[in-house]
Amino acid sequence: MSLTKKTYSISELSREFDVTTRSMRFYEDQGLLKPDRKGQTRIFSSKDRVRLKLILRGKRMGFSLAETKELFDLWDETLSGNEKQLHLMLETLARKRAQLEQQKKDIAMAEIEIDTAEARCLEALKELENKKKNAKSTEESPG
Amino acid sequence: MSLTKKTYSISELSREFDVTTRSMRFYEDQGLLKPDRKGQTRIFSSKDRVRLKLILRGKRMGFSLAETKELFDLWDETLSGNEKQLHLMLETLARKRAQLEQQKKDIAMAEIEIDTAEARCLEALKELENKKKNAKSTEESPG
DNA sequence: AAATGACTTTACGTTTACGTAAGCTTCATC
DNA sequence: GATGAAGCTTACGTAAACGTAAAGTCATTT
């Protein structure tokens, strides 16, 4: 029924997301990925693919694997649908949202600082240019 | 001349930013902070304070101490103002800007996912409510 | 059938970013 | 002058996130 029922080998996903196979096995070891097996060989589902993507995004955002795993687990539990867990999930989502807000502020600050830093650089370069010109004209009329 | 010429003790900054003194000493060890000494005791300047703030922001954004230190060092070099270094700095700033763009995308995606997750949770709760009601009315007229 | 390439497990090594004593100094306070 | 708070150094310990062999399986290619 699923439109994306494709499966993937470890190296396939490894190449696609530029992550080592070692890392992927480690993620499985930590319970973040749960590929099927055909004999010994890992068969990754599109669900695994999505999760891998989320893991890597999480990393870029400064989340630990444990934090990401917590989210995965919580989501899995939520799908089993008891009321308390749904409320727990909502709380967690709210916390995550707050975290994202903080990160947006951080990014905004960082951007401002980058802007001013760039401005200073450009000014400094301008001044250097002026000095060059002055030096040259002094050289041309050295008296 | 400086408006903010105040100095700080290690515990003072430690409390303000909720970071252990151990961490601060470690940051110094790694060359990220450079407090003066009065005897053995560290005396932190407002420059150190700013840097500490930047270190922590960097951490929240997933930067390693090494990355943050690179930026600090580059900036210090830049202040010594040779042309090649200024251009180097500009390149680095551009790269950082790109990184921030990626992070903004990541955050936007994460927000969308949180929104949909929340929506699903709320729907699931609604359904549970409905089930409860149905169960109750069935109980009331058990024939 | 030998080699090549993709995959596996097991296991020890490494880096980062601190935690956690242990033991010493210095200063203020009771 | 003892006691405690705040600071220091030295040094070993640790969790996280892999890296890096070592040694074996399995399928395909030559």
Tell me about this structure.
The structure is a homodimer of 143-residue chains. Chain A is mostly helical and 143 residues long. In chain A, 73% of the residues lie in helices and 7% in strands. Chain A has five helices and three strands. A three-stranded antiparallel sheet of chain A has the order 1-3-2. In chain A, helix 3 (46-60) crosses helix 4 and helix 4 runs antiparallel to helix 5. The longest helix of chain A has 58 residues, at 83-140. Chain A is elongated. The A-B interface holds A 57, 59-63, 75, 78, 81, 83, 86-87, 89-90, 93, 96-97, 100, 102-104, 106-107, 109-111, 114, 117-118, 121-122, 124-125, 128 and B 57, 59-63, 75, 78, 81, 83, 86-87, 89-90, 93, 96-97, 100, 102-104, 106-107, 109-111, 114, 117-118, 121-122, 124-125, 128. The first copy, chain A, binds a DNA duplex (30 and 30 nucleotides) through residues 9-11, 20-23, 25-26, 30, 39-42, 64-66.
Short description:
With 143 residues, chain A is mainly alpha-helical. Chain A is built from five helices and three strands, in the order βααββααα.
Number of helices of chain A: 5
Low-confidence stretches of chain A: none
State the share of residues found in helices of chain A, binned by percent: over 70%
Q: Reading side by side through the largest sheet of chain A, how are the strands ordered?
A: 1-3-2
